[in-house]
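Need a sequence for this fold. Nothing fancy.
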């Protein structure tokens, strides 16, 4: 009888111990996640501030350089469609659009590919967006056509951006490493068709890199 009682007591003690260890583990995990999220947010804020300082003189405003509301580790640089000067329902950049990129891409690269930031940036994705005007005989055909159009336009921007960095090999190499193109078509529309037609540079920073970037910025 005593043996049975001792066995039950030992089993109960082990259960209590395992429960306590599990609670401690969960608390430590929550602290780690919170600390990591704070570091990632700080890094994004450092880069956001620098982009605003360096790109404002280039004509970008507060609304065109902002955090991604769906990803705390990403920054959006939004270029309205009328500044890119694409032909209607075509992916060809007109001369004014090429001039816009020729003027701004080097300044953009000066920030993103500079020593403090280059190794801390995970990717630079060029997103093409269209409006929801009919571009086909049916709604489905229009959606497909606009998706294809937005993909072709984003690729045209990538190609022109790389061409504008010719002769600046460190920056061009940086963009080749991190730059990609994607199309969103009619997805993520804005309030008006004019606002919906846009190109977005989505810059994503690497997680848990705040300490290294802060150290380089103070050197």
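Here you go.
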């Amino acid at each position: 009888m005593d043996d049975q009682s001792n066995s039950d007591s030992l089993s109960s003690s082990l259960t209590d111990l395992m429960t306590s260890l599990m609670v401690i583990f969960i608390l430590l995990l929550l602290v780690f996640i919170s600390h990591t999220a704070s570091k990632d947010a700080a890094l994004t804020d450092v880069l956001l501030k620098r982009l605003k300082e360096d790109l404002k003189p280039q004509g970008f405003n507060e609304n065109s350089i902002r955090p991604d509301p769906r990803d705390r580790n990403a920054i959006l640089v939004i270029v309205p469609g009328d500044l890119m000067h694409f032909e209607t329902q075509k992916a060809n950049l007109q001369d004014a659009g090429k001039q816009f990129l020729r003027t701004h891409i080097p300044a953009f690269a000066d920030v993103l590919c500079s020593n403090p930031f280059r190794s801390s940036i995970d990717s630079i994705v060029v997103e093409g967006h269209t409006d929801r005007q009919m571009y086909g005989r049916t709604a489905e055909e229009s959606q497909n056509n606009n998706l294809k159009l937005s993909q072709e336009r984003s690729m045209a921007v990538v190609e022109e951006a790389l061409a504008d960095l010719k002769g600046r090999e460190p920056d061009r190499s940086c963009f080749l490493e991190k730059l990609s193109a994607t199309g969103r078509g009619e997805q993520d529309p804005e309030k008006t068709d004019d606002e919906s037609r846009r190109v977005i540079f989505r810059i994503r920073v690497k997680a848990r890199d705040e300490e290294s970037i802060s150290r380089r910025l103070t050197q």
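For context: The first strand starts at residue 65 and ends at 68.
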